[in-house]
Amino acid sequence: MVNFLGDSSEVNANMEEKESVIKTHFEKFITFIRDHWKLISIGGVIILLLMISVFLITFFAVRGSYESGVHFGVREILIMHVSSLHNDSLDNGNDDYLEFPTTTVKTAKPSSTTTLKSLTNPVFTTTSGKIGKIHVTFLCIAPLTCTNNFTMVNGKCWMLINNSSIRSDADKMCKTYNGATLVSIRNADENQALTDFLKDENINTLWTGLYCFGETNITACIWDIQAGSAANYSSFKVGYPDADYGRCVFYIGNGTDIGQWENEECGETMPFVCELPPTVHEGTCDFLYNSHCYFRIDMMKNITDSQHFCLSRCSNLVSIHSANENRFIQSIYDTNFTNIAIGGFASSKDYMIWMDGSPTDYNNIQFSYAGSCVIMAAGTTDTGYWYTRPCNETFWFVCDRPAGFSC
């Protein structure tokens, strides 16, 4: 007969022996900690400090390279669908039918003056269609600069016009410089930068691009071309804004109130500063704005042929992503011109897509007529407004592409 009892006793003895060994090791570990806790604590703090130092060095080194003024000729990374519009798209009995194929080119369409935060190697892409084969290298590393003899100040391009003008004339004068606007001031740094910019000019007052619609409410003070309100930052003098004095806001450039704002009747005259976004420089552009090249094409073509023409120059029919860019497009045409084709396709007033695949983050369609292709009114009383027309009608047009890449 098997002696289960004896086996059980032996197993219990082995378990007790193992527990004793474990207990002994644990007691030695506790004793070691008690005897050396100071050295262990110092070592842990040193390791922690080393880890923090490595993190901070890496963080500031990378941040410095981002903010060093290097610009990649694009405003944001996205996949831009280059639309090869087929000639037969207008021969199927539907004037407003446009075919968007799946061929894509990796490039970008800008929407602001943002410096690119991350990008790796250049992308070389080839696309083909009825217009032939296009080879595009779109990435360009270049410093930001100012055009039109403007001066780079705190990431913006400014020009002082020391010629006293009423506010409306000041705005018109700025527009002649690639659609520039009157100066906008969005934070305390920019407010101080303007003071520094004017310090040797003996300027007492200066028009800004801020207009107040309300009596005393700062949120009713709006920057030109619907570029936001003064709610997030203002430097109004105590007691302002006050519509009793007028609705146009000016900047005080001298005296004890230097750097503060007041409002005045818009018919008063004073100097002004015009503002443009910085851009990548490229000598081959017909027009250069906010790191994009624009080509004014003074030929009458329907929308399909216009897009084919733009593609042959490694560009697309222009897509417009801000009121500032819309103002710039207006500025490159004579005031007596009327209809300009842009690269929008709208099934309704409130729904539009761009032929280059970029996001619809700005829409200025005011009238929805027959047709679905978007046209800009550039020389009428509705200057800058968009409306729709049949896609087989012919118009002058604008092509655009990111600045700084070869085709």
TrEMBL record:
InterPro entries: C-type_lectin-like, C-type_lectin-like/link_sf, CTDL_fold, Snaclec. Residues 153-275, 289-400 form the C-type lectin domain. SUPFAM superfamilies: C-type lectin-like. It comes from the Eukaryota. It holds the Pfam family Lectin_C. The chain crosses the membrane at residues 39-62. Keywords: Disulfide bond, Membrane, Transmembrane, Transmembrane helix. PANTHER family: C-TYPE LECTIN-RELATED, PROTEIN CBG13490. This is C-type lectin domain-containing protein. It comes from Caenorhabditis remanei (Caenorhabditis vulgaris). The lineage of its organism: Eukaryota, Metazoa, Ecdysozoa, Nematoda, Chromadorea.
